User: What shape does this take?
Amino acid sequence: MSTTTATASRVRPPAASELDAEERMSRDEIAALQLERLQQTVRHAYANVPLYTRKLDDAGVRPEDIRTLEDVQLLPFTTKEDLRETYPFGMFAVPMSDVARIHASSGTTGRPTVVGYTRGDLERWGSLVARSLRASGIRPGMKVHNAYGYGLFTGGLGAHAGIEALGATVIPMSGGQTARQVQLILDFEPDAILCTPSYLLTIADAMAAQGVDPRSTSLKVAVLGAEPWSNEMRHELEQRLGIDALDIYGLSEVMGPGVGNECLETKDGPHLWEDHFLPEVIDGESGAVLPDGELGELVFTSLTKEAFPVIRYRTRDLTRLLPGTARPGMRRMEKITGRNDDMIILRGVNLFPTQIEELVLGIEQLTPHFILELSKDARMDTLKVRIERHPDLSVETCLSAAEVLAQRIKIFVGSTVAVQLEEPGTLPRSEGKYKRVYDLR
Ligand code: DLL
Assistant: This one.
């Protein structure tokens, strides 16, 4: 997989003197800090959240039983269903008078999950997003165009606070109004943009449609997350916009954006900010903890949260834990391939939308604008890739590229799919988290 940049970076990684003290800690120092904070978190959650009191009692574990970091494995998991059960505020570990802000994740089904923050939580969140942006090459004094949606979603306000905490200038644009986004990028000349990767693609297209060369703007770096995206998509965005594209990870239940972030010098998957979160990877079926390097479901225990501590929260995100590189004291995770929930099971073969994305972007004659449609045909599940043809190429060229795509999906994923060409500009465009899969069964 290619991670090369088309242009030399126009930003630089932070010097060692610019890092937080924790980013310079050794693995042993981080582990010692984690143990102390884990013990404190378990005591706090057990004493103040009835669901945790009950779950720990049921499992026969007391906070004093946590003597080593491995003892986290004695604790029960927390799931999205637990959070739904306690809707809206049942998981809060502090009185409402100490809750400074509430966010909620919409969720595709059922009730939203509601999360809360004390003033201290908000300050730590801001500093972790600031750390993430600094790792991406953003510095105090730069202008940052924030196109994550503002509101109950943690993306907009979470990124906003981080930009301010870093000492950069925030342009609080929020999502949507794409033509206006382009205009303000041209007028305000930001150095950096924050949004979802699929929305940056929409913005780049809108630039081109307005006769603006996407490589000619002031943008030098993009910090992209909130949805899975492949290294091929990184390459595509870096080339089209002449920028560095970095991966920011997070989820509302654990904090919001800034649980981890890639470092500009390595671009090898997000480093997890382990001074505040204890990650594990488990086998999704058995719940067994997997050794570092193995693919499974990511689980987090928060280490410093006051209003909304989480114990072994099952994210449903699939990845593996890897040793730290640019920050050797903290582990990395591999770029997320997908979520348990996004996995398409097609006639016994598991596949993720990012796998199709990788293959699409590997064929020059294809555009990155595609959706996946699942339907039932004569009692068989079928998958159709609907993809826009390239506006500058002949229909024959695009048709043969579509055939190549179908062959590669067969070879690399093992599924037989139909590829259908669509006219340019006819498929839905992203304005935030992109809906790629349509299940018509
Ligand atoms: O998406 C928080 C966020 C905002 C992260 C802005 C990064 C930037 P939720 O809406 O709760 O929170 O959705 C969390 O989004 O469990 C992943 O499945 C997915 N996700 C988030 N970041 C990434 C990423 C925000 N960098 C869910 N790569 C998570 C892949 C991501 N998936």
About this structure: Residues 105, 148, 153-155, 225-228, 247-252, 256-257, 315, 317, 336, 339 surround DLL (CB under 6 Å). The radius of gyration is 22 Å. DSSP finds ten helices and 21 strands in the chain. The chain has a mean pLDDT of 95.
